[in-house]
Predict the structure.
Amino acid sequence: MENKTIASISTPLGKGAISIVRMSGSESLQIAQKLFKSKALNFDKITPRMLYYGKFKIDDNAYETCLMVYFKAPFSYTGEDVVEFQIHGGSIITSKILSVLLENGAILAENGEFSKRAFENGKISLDQAESIIDEINAESEGELKAFLMLIGGKLKNQITSMQSSLSNILAEIEATLDYPEEDFEQAVKEKIFKSINSISTALQDILKDSQNSKYIKQGINIAIVGSPNVGKSSLLNSLIGQERAIVTSIAGTTRDVLNESITYKGIKFNFLDTAGIRQSDDEVEKIGIEKSKNSIESADLILFVLDASRTKSVQDTEIEDLLKNHKNVITIINKIDKKRLLDGYPNEIEISALNGYNTEKIKEHIYNMLLKEEIDYTKIILTNERQTNILKEAYNLSLKILQAKEESMDIIAMLIKSLWNTLGKITGECENERIIDIIFSKFCLGK
């Protein structure tokens, strides 16, 4: 059954230069012809991908001056006939244009329906569709680079190649089962396990290259911890390059966890300026101190700040005890512009938050400590949890097959079919329609 022509607003509602309303389906051009007129346009000889300047009929007395472009199937995002109207950016006029299209035969698109049709028509694979969602939601340069690589089809091509190899293996197994009198089962098995080993190694490489995906997608959570008045808020201001935290000489100024983010080498650094940890009778400050302790537990890395101009206090020692089980701690010796009285620490970084001395070194140290090496964005990097879990499942299946060398061809074939179907959950070349519906429901309207 042919899909109905759908319509939706494809830009955020609000005031702006332009808004876009789009239709997709076999009746797109027919509906547009009822409503749009241009001196330069003959609908019988319309040129695809050309912008036409004209008027959109809202009612018998009102017209919207706008641009229209037609994308002829299959050379469009959805693979169907697509018409887009570029109109003035206002929520009322945009909603009105959509309403008129619906009155003239289009139906309102569901969330992600344009992209779902693109998938169904072979314009994009399932992993590319997910990467489109992630690209829209990207909050750092590194995240964007990873998604653009997937949208380009690199993962799809590799998974498709693996599935093709598995299909060839299954064909050879069938031949072996069909002609049992032929004594070539051992030779076929050797060929099978060579191919499976190659696939297993490729899956392992992708998972290894994606081990930093948590930091690429979510950023690195960094708690700035220390006693009151050691300069935590000054350090935060210096790291982010603006006066965001209140700095005073009064102990206990910071009473809540303050979150600020910057991007460094494409990775988002989420700094948490915490309340100074000490014994306090102030109820509000006590709540802030408790939040500070919670931040220590949830942080990927701790900046433990000490004051170089004073000797180690009881509070400093207590904080050291709190941090002793955290694997990622950088000791920051602040106020180095003053006379140093504090004893030395192994692997410390001396800084002056007041004048910004050495704060860039902290960023470099954080990056190197957690990411170990520069991220190679030319490789496949999975930041999507669903895709990562599927590839882990596929990798474990490949290991299971490699351990089944003594099993019958029937059992090996069953395991290989399971691996083929598991890999297909990435691209959509599988038997699970529910996965497809769930993914496209995450899209916004008009996409």
User: Anything to note?
Assistant: The first helix runs from residue 28 to 35. The first strand starts at residue 6 and ends at 9.
